[in-house]
Amino acid sequence: MVRRSVLVCxxxxxxxxxxxxxxxxxxxxxxxxxxxxxxxxxxxxPEDVLEISVWQNQDLSRTVTVRPDGKxxxxxxxxxxxxxxTPEELKARIRAGLKPYTEDPHVAVIVQQINSWxxxxxxxxxxxxxxxxxxxxxxxxxxxxxxxFTEFAKKSxxxxxxxxxxxxxxxxxxxxxxxxxxxxxxxxxxxxxDTIVVP
Length: 199
Fold this sequence. Notes:
Elements: E1 2-11, E2 18-28, H1 33-37, E3 49-54, E4 62-65, E5 71-74, E6 78-81, H2 87-98, E7 107-113, E8 118-123, E9 129-132, H3 139-145, E10 158-164, E11 167-173, H4 175-181, E12 195-198
Parallel strand pairs: 8-12
Antiparallel strand pairs: 1-2, 1-11, 3-4, 3-7, 5-6, 8-9, 10-11, 10-12
């Protein structure tokens, strides 16, 4: 069985500002796999490696790494926010920054390395640590990549701590039921930043 404790917050326009109260709810989860696992347009994060290409202008083109503060540095536009934007949104910002210097600049933003999408697994697994999310990854796959459970693991009391799009929630997972039920929707997909705790 998979259960969620959801902390729902009403947010202002800036993600870091939270207003009014929060309400916690508990609900059983049985979502279709495509809803759980589908990723929206890729959002750039710190440590991602980006290739910025300005057509017919090698002096303005370069490969950069997104800094921990979420910014990149480019000629003429200097520091510009990259984390939290899609490649298309970043392209638009760079174009706007270059327009005073270059007439109708043609900009391409290519994500060369995805380093910011990760999940964390800790507790009673063989190899706890930080793992990259390269494709759709489920709880059972995450446990397998961590080498499986130790003999002391309480597999019926796994918790996944998630912060995603202004929501915080704790997802309770009974691993034995996930495996025995043969129901794909119970083996939930991870999202970037998820922390799996195996007591």
